[in-house]
Amino acid sequence: MSLVNTSRKFAQICATKNPILFTAIRNHWNKDFKPAAFPKTQEERNAAAEKYGLISSEYKPYANDGTGMGDYPELPLTSGDSRDPHYPWDNPELKRNFNEPLHADFEMYGEDRYDVMFKHRTPVYKQFFQFTGVMLGIFIVYGVCENFKMFPGLIPKQYPLQGKKHYTFEVEE
Amino acid sequence: MGNIMGNGVSNGLNLYLHPEITPDPLKEPKNNPLEGFDKLRKERTVKATKAEMESAKIPLQNRDYCVDELLRFKACRKDVWPFAVQCEHEKHAYLNCQYEDYVIRMKEYERERRLMERSAALNAAA
């Protein structure tokens, strides 16, 4: 029993002297990231907004339709590619500021993933006409030229021992 | 080059626009090969027999009128291997023979084309 007490005291001393060693182990488990239940009263909403670092007027949870988002806030969807690369982000790798709430599907919209705010250089209907125009144009040229295949002026190759007589252009004396 | 860059294109157009005076390169000539010659033309022959070609494993597409030169070339290579460069004369003879064969085919095509033109003109006159 004394060994247990000694160990506990030792652990407490370590936790006070070197908290970084222990906070990393004891906090930020999966259960800590798990959102709480859907907020029903205004007090619960305010508490949830504060928990996620939002002001109460900006806080808007996902619809309570069974998707399991709980009280997690529905944040505007901005892709990593569309964020300002020249802004001095606290975390430039993720273009993210310290304590900034993350979108629920954050891992889907990184710079290496899908860009929801992507703008095409040409509109899609134009791209469709460009594609069909090029393909149809090539097909028409191909179809027309199919009738005019160039060829060297040669008769088919002559082979001996097949019951046919072939001649040179010299005459017998 | 002239057979492709210049004539090749017009050959293709002529075969579509004037098929009555343009021979099809994929069909054998229809005219009598001896027509218009005072004397008999020399026949093209090969000395090698089918058994010899089979024994030398000559591919079917190479069993043409140059197969004698090809057999000499391959026999030489076998004799002097690995100094195959010593067979340069045999190889030259074989390639020359292929060239002559090509020229004969071009001449036959031109002969066929002129005979077709002649018969078309005769038909138009009649």
Automatic annotation (TrEMBL), chain A:
The organism's taxonomic lineage, starting at the top: Eukaryota, Metazoa, Ecdysozoa, Arthropoda, Hexapoda
Segments crossing the lipid bilayer: 127-144
Protein source organism: Nicrophorus vespilloides
PANTHER family: NADH DEHYDROGENASE [UBIQUINONE] 1 BETA SUBCOMPLEX SUBUNIT 8, MITOCHONDRIAL (PTHR12840:SF1), NADH-UBIQUINONE OXIDOREDUCTASE ASHI SUBUNIT (PTHR12840)
Protein name: NADH dehydrogenase [ubiquinone] 1 beta subcomplex subunit 8, mitochondrial
Domain of life: Eukaryota
Record keywords: Membrane, Transmembrane, Transmembrane helix
InterPro entries, sorted: NDUFB8
Automatic annotation (TrEMBL), chain B:
Lineage: Eukaryota, Metazoa, Ecdysozoa, Arthropoda, Hexapoda
Keywords, ordered alphabetically: Disulfide bond, Electron transport, Membrane, Mitochondrion, Mitochondrion inner membrane, Respiratory chain, Transport
Gene name linked to the record: LOC108559170
Membrane topology: Peripheral membrane protein
Pfam families: NDUF_B7
Subcellular location: Mitochondrion inner membrane; Mitochondrion intermembrane space
Function per UniProt: Accessory subunit of the mitochondrial membrane respiratory chain NADH dehydrogenase (Complex I), that is believed not to be involved in catalysis. Complex I functions in the transfer of electrons from NADH to the respiratory chain. The immediate electron acceptor for the enzyme is believed to be ubiquinone.
InterPro entries hit by this protein: NDUB7 (IPR008698)
Family: Belongs to the complex I NDUFB7 subunit family.
Organism whose genome encodes this protein: Nicrophorus vespilloides
Protein name per Swiss-Prot or TrEMBL: NADH dehydrogenase [ubiquinone] 1 beta subcomplex subunit 7
